Amino acid sequence: MRSPDAITIGEHRVGPGERPFVIAEMSGNHNGSLDRALEIVDAIAGTGAQAVKLQTYRADTITIDADGPAFRIRDDHGLWGGRNLYQLYEQAHTPWEWHEPLFTRAREHGLVPFSSPFDPTAIDLLESLDAAAYKVASAELVDLPLIRRMGATGRPMVMSTGMATLGEIDAAVTAARDGGCSELVLLACTASYPAEPQDANLQTIPALREAFGVPVGLSDHTYGIGVAVASVAMGAVAIEKHVTLRREDGGVDSDFSLEPDELAALCRESDAARLAMGPARFGPRESERDTLALRRSLFVVADVTAGEKVTEANVRSIRPAGGLATDTIGTVLGRTFTRDVERGTPLTWDLI
């Protein structure tokens, strides 16, 4: 039976009990080349990820070309230090004319293509492409009119919560629902690039699920896959990671992005984590049947004749099972065998 709070994105169920919905974020890793962007989509298709996500903006729809202190990233930022916002977004944006061929290529591979729109005209573009869902980026969580506009499309929404207070998340969720969104996934997120594992605070995942009654996943910017896999143990049903072809190629997000083989490992190991999260259980499982037969028990370890004493030389605790319990050794020592017994026979009460 499907979980009642699972939602549908494309043809995929996203919720408890389902395979983690892995979203491969291209972001600016196309490095200004449509051919490279298409190659990234092709690479994602071979990993087991279910979705590829873009970001839909132009530099002048997300900011303005200004050079005051507020429009520059602090100088000591590890990736983008000293960069002007407009120049950074001009470099990182995915040209709007690329969206259609990228969506088409993704669909040819069976991937679900969708995007983060950063203004109403971006929503219009994505509507024309029949985007499967909308993603709310962490910094846009406070743009309630934009969220209502996404909600009004009636499509599922995936909402990152980096930096947000519980009150801000509540306002955003309310805006999405007021707009008309009935299917929503929240993503716990640390909006630092890259993020440190100690800042992941994965217990936020069950807290969000409890607070809002919706499926919850993780948007992860840490290095590697460890944090993302661990999130599944906390109930994450979706995982978003940035993806590139090769980190050595450089790019605005390459430093904390996964390469295709790492994305494949994430898909494989996150599903293994899901399968491992069964209920508490004690006692042997069916899969342990063969090993259960190897438990130690008392065996006759030397040929004996009737009337011979049971000693530590002819009866021992060994593998496999089948003989008397090992703790009965003190009871049987000194008794006599009732008949001849061959070495390798399990010791039973009728033999002594």
Question: What do these coordinates show?
Answer:
The protein has 2 domains: 13-58 and 93-276, Alpha-Beta Barrel (TIM Barrel), CATH 3.20.20.70; 286-351, Antifreeze-like/N-acetylneuraminic acid synthase C-terminal domain (Type Iii Antifreeze Protein Isoform Hplc 12, Alpha-Beta Complex), CATH 3.90.1210.10. 31% of the residues lie in helices and 16% in strands. It has 12 helices and 13 strands. It has helices at residues 34-45, 59-62, 85-92, 96-108, 120-128, 144-151, 166-179, 204-212, 226-233, 260-276, 289-292, 329-332; strands at 7-9, 12-14, 21-25, 51-56, 112-117, 134-136, 157-160, 184-189, 216-219, 238-242, 297-300, 315-318, 345-346. The longest helix has 17 residues, at 260-276. The chain starts with 6 loop residues before the first strand and ends in a 6-residue tail after the last strand.
List the helices and strands and how they pair.
Blueprint lengths: L6 E3 L2 E3 L6 E5 L8 H12 L5 E6 L2 H4 L22 H8 L3 H13 L3 E6 L2 H9 L5 E3 L7 H8 L5 E4 L5 H14 L4 E6 L14 H9 L3 E4 L6 H8 L4 E5 L17 H17 L12 H4 L4 E4 L14 E4 L10 H4 L12 E2 L6
Parallel strand pairs: 3-4, 3-10, 4-5, 6-7, 7-8, 8-9, 9-10
Antiparallel strand pairs: 1-2, 11-12, 11-13
Helix pairs in contact: 1-4, 6-7, 9-10
InterPro entries: AFP_Neu5c_C_sf, Aldolase_TIM, PseI-like, PseI/NeuA/B-like_N, Pseudaminic_synth_PseI, SAF, SAF_AFP_Neu5Ac, SAF_PseI/NeuA/NeuB
GO molecular function, one term: N-acylneuraminate-9-phosphate synthase activity
Pfam families: NeuB, SAF
